[in-house]
Amino acid sequence: MDADGADHVVCDHLFHVFALLGKRWNGLIIGALLGGPARFSELERGISGIGGPMLSRRLVELAEVGLVERHVETGPPVEVSYQLTPAGEGLRPSVEELRRWGERFCGSPPPPACS
Hints:
Layout (H helix, E strand, L loop, with lengths): L11 H10 L4 H8 L4 E2 H7 L5 H13 L3 E6 L5 E6 L1 H4 L2 H14 L10
Antiparallel strand pairs: 1-3, 2-3
């Protein structure tokens, strides 16, 4: 406890949220998918600096925890797209608030850590 008698223990839920969303690229992938379903190539082009293998790993991880789902349209040609699940869509208010925070505190133009 601090001098005010407040306890500064981080709850397990918050720990798990930041362990997942704080992992590099995950938040940006979710942010990109808030715009609607996207094909792998669209995500790769739209998220500056991410490579295909890393994008693939992160999409699998986000699917495993129930935030993203993969859809396969049989072809020809076969098309694979990704979209947020209802749980992923539930992050919209938080991601939008983080975006507003970034606009306010990361400056304009954003420094490299914010872009």
